[in-house]
Write a structure and sequence with these properties.
By secondary structure, the chain is α+β, with helices and mostly antiparallel strands. The chain has helices at 3-10, 14-29, 115-122, 139-149; strands at residues 49-50, 56-58, 66-69, 72-75, 81-85, 91-100, 106-113, 131-137, 162-165, 169-172, 197-204, 207-212, 215-224, 229-234, 239-249. The protein folds into 2 domains: 1-37, no CATH class; 49-249, Jelly Rolls (Sandwich). 37% of the residues are buried.
Length: 250
């Protein structure tokens, strides 16, 4: 079969058409095919709504740990604990912006936090729930580790790790931490202290995916539990959130 016949055959299928188009573009123009445009998820559109103070219940923080003012959620970081959604949520999309106010700050968003773990926290047992954590970590946390240990960390990053906590389970997307439980980000996109970062979290049918500042970087599948509470974490240092929005899915 000659080249002309082969390309004609390929063009009869979707894949062949794509290959034919790319080949022709390269042959005739000497240029690479244009890059695909990126989608932007900003929390607007049908089904999206604001997450407000009225949507959350304090589990094991102090009354003044979390305050809501002028569209910004302020967290003191003390004590370590969480606030949770009023209802359990199975499938949803969420967007938020966050910035740490202190070097090496630590926080997180918990997806599908279990009822049993929330009940224990409310009873004064433990500090954080069992579920899937989407980490919110300042770049200074890694910097401090390297200064103390003399080498980069091999078990966490500051760019959007996703991992199960307690008895929860998840099959992490690669790259995977040495312990096999944590999904590391494919890119380092987190901005530093006092700069706003954007998270888009998609949690559907036992699969969690995270976009950091517009690009998908980490996640996992086969999550257990795959239904539970959405939580915001207080973990030792001040942090702010804004533009918290959610779209609950079937």
């Amino acid at each position: 079969m000659n080249r002309s016949s082969f390309l004609t055959l390929l063009s009869l299928t979707g894949l062949g058409f794509a290959l034919f188009t790319n080949q022709s573009f390269s042959d005739h123009h000497g240029e690479a095919a244009p890059a695909l445009k990126k989608a932007v998820i900003d929390g607007t559109g049908q089904g999206w709504r604001d997450l407000t103070e009225a949507d959350f219940i304090n589990v094991n923080c102090k009354p003044d740990t979390w305050t809501w003012k002028d569209g910004v959620v302020h967290c003191t970081g003390k004590p370590v604990g969480v606030i949770r959604s009023k209802e359990q949520i199975k499938n949803f999309e969420m967007v938020c912006e966050w910035k740490h106010k202190k070097h090496a700050g630590n926080s997180g968003v918990f997806v599908w936090a279990s009822q049993a773990s929330i009940d224990k926290l409310a009873a004064g047992k433990g500090a954080l729930p069992d579920g899937i954590e989407v980490q919110v970590l300042d770049l200074g946390y890694e910097t401090n580790w390297e200064k103390q240990k003399g080498e980069p960390s091999d078990w966490f990053t500051s760019h959007g790790d996703v991992f199960p906590t307690g008895p929860a389970k998840m099959k992490p997307f690669p790259p995977v931490a040495p312990n096999g439980r944590r999904s590391f980000p494919t890119k380092n996109l987190t901005k530093g202290i006092n700069e706003w970062n954007h998270y888009y979290i998609r949690a559907i049918n036992g699969e969690v995916r995270l976009w950091v500042n517009g690009e998908e970087v980490s996640g996992g599948t086969n999550c257990d539990p795959a239904n539970g509470y959405l939580c915001l974490e207080s973990e030792g240092s001040p942090i702010e959130f804004k533009n918290l929005r959610i779209r609950v899915l079937p």
